[in-house]
Amino acid sequence: MPENKTKETEASVRDFIDQVESAQKRLDSHVLIEILKEISGFEPKMWGPSIIGFGSYHYKYQSGHEGDAPLIGFSPRKNAISLYFSCDVNGEHPELLAKLGKFKTGKGCLYVNKLSDVDIEILKALAKDSIKITLEKYP
């Protein structure tokens, strides 16, 4: 089995955010850190070179592949802020997503250009549910 590239590191979250090109994404990153820290109860840690994660869980797939991943996290990428949720945001939360605002989805990710595009309270609800689902699936 190949080794996971995305692992928790000792790199500085603050240094990473300081290097983000967009001033808006830097500001949004600081807001997200406070929100996700409060919701998860964990301090932010770097996972790989570009993901800010909170907490962790161990997964094991039927294929035998296993590893650790952040319980919840985000990355201020060039095109959008990627919010990493461990639940299927495409199918499990239609009522919340309908109220969220402007976003795109991927498998297990929400992409937002800036936090002002979304309803923060709905984002918090999605984050809380994501943590709950992950902890139920991987106790």
3D structure, described in words:
- There is one protein chain.
- By secondary structure, the protein is α+β, with helices and mostly antiparallel strands.
- It has a single domain, classed as Aspartate Aminotransferase, domain 1, CATH 3.90.1150.200.
- The chain is 35% helix and 23% strand.
- The chain contains 4 helices and 8 strands; from the N terminus they run ααββββββαββα.
- It has helices at residues 13-18, 23-40, 94-100, 120-137, and strands at residues 44-47, 51-54, 57-60, 66-69, 72-76, 81-84, 104-106, 109-112.
- The strands form 2 sheets. A 6-stranded antiparallel beta sheet has the order 1-2-5-6-8-7. A two-stranded antiparallel ribbon has the order 3-4.
- A hairpin with a 2-residue loop joins strand 7 (104-106) and strand 8.
- The longest helix has 18 residues, at 23-40.
- The protein is globular and about 40 Å long.
- The chain starts with 12 loop residues before the first helix and ends with a helix.
- The mean pLDDT is 90.
